[in-house]
Target: AAA family ATPase
Amino acid sequence: MQIQYAKKTFNFLLEEIHRLRGEFKKIKTREHWEYPESVRNHPLSIDLDLCTKQGFIGIYDVTITEIGFQTYLKRFLQEPLEDTKFNFHSQDIEKILKKETKTQAYHLLRKFLVPEAETNEKFPLPEVNAEDFFWKKRRLLKVIFPIWGTITPLYLVLGLLFDLPLIPLLLLINGILFFSYRSDSLKQWKEIKSLSSGASRFQKTFIYLAKNRKATKQMIGRITSLGDSSELLISPLPHLILNLLCLWDLWKIKSLEKWKLKFGNLWNEIQIQIVQTDVILPFVNFGFLFPEVSFPIPSSSGDLSARSLVHPLLPIESRVFNPLTPMLPGDLMIVTGSNMSGKTTYMRSIAMSLLLAGTGAPILGSEFTFPEFQIHTLIRSQDSMEDGVSFFYSEVRRLSSIIQNAEYSKKVPILFLDEILKGTNSKERYIATREILSVLREKKCIVFLTTHDLKLAEIPWAKRFHFTELEIDGQMDFDYKIRDGVSGSTNALKILKKEGIPIRNEEE
Model:
């Protein structure tokens, strides 16, 4: 066990080093199809590559519990939480990161969590349900069965010894009773197994967090012992015989009830602590790995700006911090530039910083202010052969949905649009894009648009920025720095020639 725990700790530290160095390919993450369908098909997941092998969600996922993982996903994708007790605020993360001993405790707890777990494996840790649905429907049986369940086996023993009558009748009555409660008793057994499994798997964590360790050990011991009884369910015949002889399920359900009355509150108290830690840990861990992070500042005026920011998945040696000019509701930023110069990465850097800010996490940057927002992205449109939907129509439907949501949103809609309406001719694309941007301005949206169409940059209310390439010793190079104004250079033909594709009439 000690060797296993040492290996788990070593692997944990090794993954932390890979995260710190940006060696994301060395981290074992989920496959895209392993995420829930609602998550992998979420527009933010698609457009910001959140669920790819080296996407942010997988790289920084250090959750262990099923509830923690689901809450982490919803929190990051700005989806409403069903259970608000697992909610947290930026102040909670900030307090943890500012207290060195507390941070160490969190990382110690991370290593306590399931040392035998496989990578990315999540485990159930249920809450104790205080509602007594089983006995609620069987109040009379609850009173009678202890007497009946004691008398029956005694009578059977005596009956076999002294050839007493009514033995078949007793067995028949017990059989009828068993089949009358069997479906509900199986649900109770499912709860017992779930609690027992959670107690066994998270035993060290429960004891580590407990104020009363003696009571906690008793709680774990009793539910684990009760869970061991469930092994008999694997063999239907012995299970049936035990219920015919003494109504065995009812005794175990009664034991579960006593356990809940004595330990239910203690269990729920520590269970909430574990899941709350599990939910917040990915964001605490992100801040712990990068001490240079800063916490975003909420803006009541609707202002969105930053002195500097960068995409959190860029390796340290490749990070180029760029400012974000102040943007207010109704503002439009158009970013132009040559291929591979950094336009889309810059836009994704802003979007990722917003998502982190929305969770309460720190960001890689400084002086980041943000309003209460609703984020929308249109970076990757997807066609569908099955539905007969083209790229163009897919984009139009997404844009229509975004505009309709903006109409009724109490939050500031922030849109990220990358080369929209690619599936039509340049004249109609310009007219359509201009009108869409006008509507979004009326809806008080903040819009970021990247484009190669320099005519779009002539829109009078747009704030214009660009990225460009540098030529060093006849070779293209990029500094990934944002600059004022419209791009004055292109590099598509240079890239084609570099890859061996001849351009015979370049002057045209």
Notes: The longest strand covers residues 412-418. DSSP finds 18 helices and 13 strands in the chain. Confidence is low (pLDDT under 50) at residues 383-389, 491-496. The CA atoms of residues 90 and 360 lie 4 Å apart.
